[in-house]
Specification:
4% strand, 10 helices, 225 residues, mainly alpha, three-stranded antiparallel sheet
Length: 225
């Protein structure tokens, strides 16, 4: 009454079941430890190695105040992007001038930098990419541009206008303050057509005041003042 075939199959299935359970628990342990595999996203910023360096802290606070940023992560994000651009340029500079990779990738990088307004037309060399600074990228942000164009009273007001969907770039409403404006898009920054500032429907408070005035409630305005 012994069936070796059945017994072996039962053993195999139980063995594989134990293995998969072990793998599952290992994956769960890794998840708990924070080492998640198969990430579908990359890093967008890198924290400083020395968290309490006075000179760096002061410099970061100055940038945050000048450009109306929300937190230091916004500074770190720009610095991380800049570091990646510089690394790419430095790697290409190590290759020979006639190298196909250097010509093809170098031109693509310079074209992108010029389109974003980070490099002038007469600065189309990889050496100029190494000279890019955080301030140059900050100057290309939509928030800075809205303030510099006189659409907002302050850089903080510019951020509020963008987040509340009052600003468009061309025909598209943009509510991202960190959006990098291209050179050809710069002249198309304006108030959105749906915004009260751009000839759209009046805002909630304005409509309320208009209704009060229309209803003859003159005392209501005095109470609000």
């Amino acid at each position: 009454g012994i069936f070796p075939g059945r017994g072996s199959s039962h053993f195999c299935s139980s063995h594989f079941g134990t293995e998969s359970a072990a793998l599952g628990s290992a994956a769960a342990t890794l998840d708990k430890m924070g080492k998640k595999s198969y990430q579908n996203y990359g890093k967008t910023f890198r924290k400083p190695k020395r968290p309490f360096e006075k000179e760096r802290l002061d410099a970061e606070m100055k940038i945050i105040g000048e450009y109306g940023l929300k937190n230091k992560r916004e500074v770190w994000r720009v610095q991380y992007a800049l570091a990646k651009i510089r690394t790419a340029a430095r790697t290409l500079l190590t290759l020979e001038e006639k190298s196909e990779k250097r010509i093809f990738e170098g031109e693509a990088l310079l074209r992108r930098m010029t389109r974003l307004g980070l490099l002038a037309e007469n600065e189309k060399k990889l050496d100029y990419v190494l000279g890019l600074t955080t301030a140059k990228i900050m100057e290309r942000r939509l928030q800075t541009k809205v303030f510099k164009l006189g659409l907002a009273k302050s850089v903080h007001h510019a951020r509020t206008l963008i987040r509340q969907r009052h600003i468009r770039v061309g025909k598209q409403i943009c509510d991202i303050p960190s959006f990098l404006v291209r050179l050809d898009s710069e002249k198309h920054i304006d108030f959105a057509l749906t915004s009260p500032f751009g000839g759209g429907r009046p805002g909630r408070v304005r409509r309320k005041q208009m209704n009060k005035k229309g209803g003859g409630g003159g005392g209501g305005d005095d109470d609000e003042d």
